[in-house]
Amino acid sequence: MPNAASVKPHIYTVSEITKDVKFLLENNFGDVWIEGEVSNFILHSSGHMYFSLKDAKSILKCAMFKRSNDALKFRPKDGMQAICFGRISIYEARGDYQMIVERMEPKGVGALQIAFEQLKEKLSKEGLFDESHKKPIPILPSRIGIVTSPTGAAIRDILNVLSRRFVNVNVLIYPVMVQGEGSAEQIAQAINEFNDFKDIDVLIVGRGGGSLEDLWAFNEEIVARAIYNSRIPVISAVGHEIDWVISDFVADMRAPTPSAAAELVVAKKEEFVSAIQNNLIRLNTAIENNLELLFSELLNLKEAYVLRQPLNVLLQYQQRTDELAKALSTRALHYVQMASQEFKTAVGRLHALSPLAILSRGYSITKLFKDGKIIKDSAQLKNGDEIITRLHKGEVKSTVGG
User: Fold this and answer.
1) pLDDT class of 128 with cuts at 50, 70, 90
2) 39-46: Cβ within 8 A, 24+ apart
């Protein structure tokens, strides 16, 4: 028997021991459920999720690959209490033991309820619920589009109400699945295709009652955005009065039931007839009152002096015209007299300043004959110059001699 001291121990490589430990873990634990608080959550660009589950004493690293988390209705976040199903394994590259998560459920509040609250918060922050974006519902639409299941109770309820309230309305039905895989995409596509029509006045989108899971298609983001982007006003009519879905918050109007949606979108024919009759009565009353007022005014005009003695009025205007003409003539004559007096005064002043007035007192003016230059000094003359002397009356021509 060989000596124990002579037996050489088996020396593992890191990879070998890691593989052996991985084998032991995976074969001894298999599939397990583990509860803990989510921390260090990371959503990688690849779509994989990495996080840790922790309690008061320990931390367990976890990985949830895209193929598994695609089915999650909610987004995990730090601090959430969760229950995870999967298997224990080792990430050989680092020698870390971890849990490969295949399913995850929130502890306490259900996954769908968390998903509902998360999407509601997201869309609210984006403004999809804002009242400023709500479009008015037409009072009496001529064509109504309906997006629902063709076999459910909702479509029967809607059509019954519409036929009772107003038979003249046209209805177009776009049949879709209202629950299950692919139903949200069908609903969104129906809304988008209805918007390609030009003569649809309003849309009713909904279904009858059910569980949160049954109504989930109307909590999907793709449906919410289709409603928000619709140019046609949308009435959301999902489930019962106590049921609230995301489409209720986005739609232009929320109806508590499909039947209520039909009642909201089309008033009773009797209500329109009654309103028309009331308006006719008010119109006739208003016309009669106006006619009485006009007739009273006509009687007052008939008794007016101008209509009873029209010739006297004309004679008064003629007399007034004569008075105005006389006043105008008197004023014009006054202005002429004043202007004439002012003219005479100006002429007198000019005459007093005229050289001719000086000549009348015995003075004379002598000028050279050849150029009319006035002689002011005898030195200006020489023998033989011809001169003209201007007197008060007439002129004298003479020649200067020595």
Assistant:
1) very high
2) 39/78, 39/79, 40/78, 41/76, 41/77, 41/78, 43/75
Do 147 and 204 contact (CB within 8 A), yes or no? yes
Residue ranges per structural domain of the chain: 14-108, 116-128+141-267, 361-399
Helix (H, G, I), strand (E, B) or coil at 145: strand
Model confidence over 74-104: pLDDT tens digits?
A: 888 888 888 888 888 888 778 788 888 998 8
- What are the C-alpha distances in Å from 45 to residues 42, 78, 102, 245? 9, 18, 19, 30
Distance CA 161, CA 263 (A): 7
Using CA atoms, how far apart are residues 162 and 158, in angstroms rounded to an integer?
6
Q: For residue range 190-229, what is the model confidence (pLDDT) as tens digits? A: 999 999 988 899 999 999 888 888 888 999 999 999 999 9
Q: Cβ neighbours of residue 30 under 8 Å, at least 6 residues apart?
A: 87
Give 107's contacts (C-beta < 8 A, 6+ positions apart): 35, 81, 82, 83
Q: Letter for the amino acid at 244?
A: W
Distance set, CA 105 to CA 33, 38, 126 (Å): 10, 11, 27
What is the third-level CATH fold of 116-128+141-267? Rossmann fold (3.40.50)
* Stretch 59-87: mean pLDDT: 86
Fold of 14-108: OB fold (Dihydrolipoamide Acetyltransferase, E2P) (2.40.50)
Residue 354 is classified by DSSP as: S
35 pairs with which residues across the strands?
83
Tell me which residue of 366, 365, 367, 360 sits closest to 392, measured CA to CA: 360
Using the Cα atoms of residue 392, residue 398, residue 400 and residue 402 in order, give the sign of their dihedral: negative
Identity (one letter) of the amino acid at 172? Answer: L
DSSP calls for 13-55: PHHHHHHHHHHHHHHHH-EEEEEEEEEEEEE-TTS-EEEEEE-
What is the rounded CA–CA span in Å between residue 313 and residue 359? 69
Measure the CA–CA gap between 107 and 79, rounded to whole angstroms. Answer: 12
